[in-house]
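Hi there,

I know you've been waiting on this one. I reran it after we fixed the sequence typo, so this is the corrected version. Both the input and the resulting structure follow.
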Amino acid sequence: MFSLFFDGIQQDLQIAIFPPVLCTLFRLIFIEIYRPKKNPFGEWRKWIACFRYGFWWGMDFNAYVFLLLVLFVSLPGAFLPTYFAVGDTIRQAAVTIYAVVLYTAFLGKMIFYYHYHDIYNSTLWLGKKAEKHNLLDIFFHQNHGVLLILSYIPYTLLCWWAGGAFLSIPQLTYYLVPSGALQIAINTAIVIGVVLIFYYFRYGGTLIHDNKPEWDTIPSIVKEDIFMARATVDDLVALENVLKHPLQEGLSHTDEEDEPVIDAIMPEAMKGGKWKDLQNPTEAFVHEAKGARIKKPKHIFLIVGESYAQMPLDDIYSDYHIMDGAKVFRQDPHTVSLNNFLPAGMISRPAIVSLMTGIFDAKLELNEREDFWHGTLATTLPNQLRKLGYRSIYWYGGNPTYGNFDKFGPAVGFDKVMGATEFCPPDSPKTWVGVYDHIFLQHAAELIQELDDDTPTFHYIYTTSNHGPYKMPLKKLGFDADAVLKDLPESVRHNHKKQKVLGTYWYSDKAISDFVAEMERVYPDALFIVTGDHACIPIHPGDTLARQDVTLREQYCTSFAMHHPELTQDILSGNTIGGHMNIMPTIFELIAPKGFSYYSLVPSLTEPIDHVVTPYHWLTRDNIGPAGKTMYQALSASDEEIPIQEESHVYFAKEVAGVDALTAWIVRHPEDLRDASNIS
């Protein structure tokens, strides 16, 4: 019986080689047809990396050919000899059908690229509302639809033949051994080997799920060539990515549908559609600075810590000493802070992109859109700071090709984009996405101090370490659980999983705090703004509090603190709430001369604010709630349960819809973007 299974899995493995070979051939055809430079001469490393990475990424789908054949052909064939006898025919038919699926996806990609100069993307969703007769007309008359349909006949026959050829590869013979126990051990090892082979292929040449290939981890040498980066993506993988990210509703709207929605958030002087006369609707949000509140600093530091949330800073969690550095920073009389502060996104990239652009990313991934690599907005923070004489540098703890920030960053006005993987030593330890925070920040500090001119500089610094899967060697990095967690119950102190999360938080806070202290020592007149990219829940309330559940405030609020030697507590005008988008106008109101014009969708923190709205949530001075829902909760840091309340209406519905529609409008009108290479 097991000998039949052994023979079967070899046949499965042999024929499973065919689909990735086919995908490799499709990749080559795609390059040869659409890429201007069609040969690898002088680019061998790029081509090899493209094909190698593409092969392993494509195994995300192709590995299932092997698994399904094992489960539905080899396994039952081991018990049913008559079924085993027709196994090769079933395998040949199955792989041929799959090859036809691959061919269909490939042809679709070739047609899509012909029209849109991109592999499958969110535009595909628009086909649901397209005129079907028009699509068919284009297919048959512009894309030679009849010939493509007829091509399935020779293609299918060729694949059937190829499947037979792969099945004819010689295979190993199954040998019986005298010892029954040894035979069982060998058979068990074979079964385990089959499982490991599947997962090794499924995870792209690794047995660790978190290390699977994805867009962000395409080798830099490939990703710097956007065409070759696209070529790495197998067609089914590209389709899967589109299906995982449904088109934002706003992108399917017409301008006529969105005009009244956008009008609702416009300044009074621009309502009634007057904003349509501007180059871009964001230019309706013009402000004039009231005059500098502090001496113009030579250096401005906007430090965005990964998952650097408010929750551990609340008094009710004072026994958790995982953000003591931030607490010390806040205790300075010239540091102002807000405990109720909304990020611009629920995850990292929408938040950091929103901070850069001055508009909400609204889950539209502006950094991934090629139009935004060449065009820009009047609202971007670096471009506006340039008018005050500042150069801007984006310091990222990972590889700036992740998320295409090497292209997006210069477009929004950064003079330099500095990735830790480029300026830190090659052997620097790394987390899932970037260099350890303390190494990244130490080397960034050294490079900042090497700037030998008098040019005022804005530094946007984004760390990466405070993120799962929490595998850092915390003890080696100085984390002493017994000391840091000494005030916590034993159930927390001795819980290894909780230690890893809390210890990583402690480590990241220490790295950021040490960096701020060093920069403050070197540049005592600098303006520091420290926030997190989004909220995080590192603490289970029930470990130390009466309540078990986290509050909406804990789920949503990130941290915010700002320091300058001339700042005083009254600078915030009594505000207790704020958000990421308030940071930019606050900078201008602190340092810009009277009459300086700047663009901002929201007011500065130097004037009273009664509410904060993002595409995801909202704040008032008393309550907090999710966007688009009738529920809300009191804005309180309490050790007791805080009830969720319901209203009959949705809070700030028009404002949420307006900021969403504004971003969608801009994405639909890339022609209205300013030339990023000609911004002054």
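Quick highlight: The chain is about 45% helix and 10% strand.

Best,
R. S.
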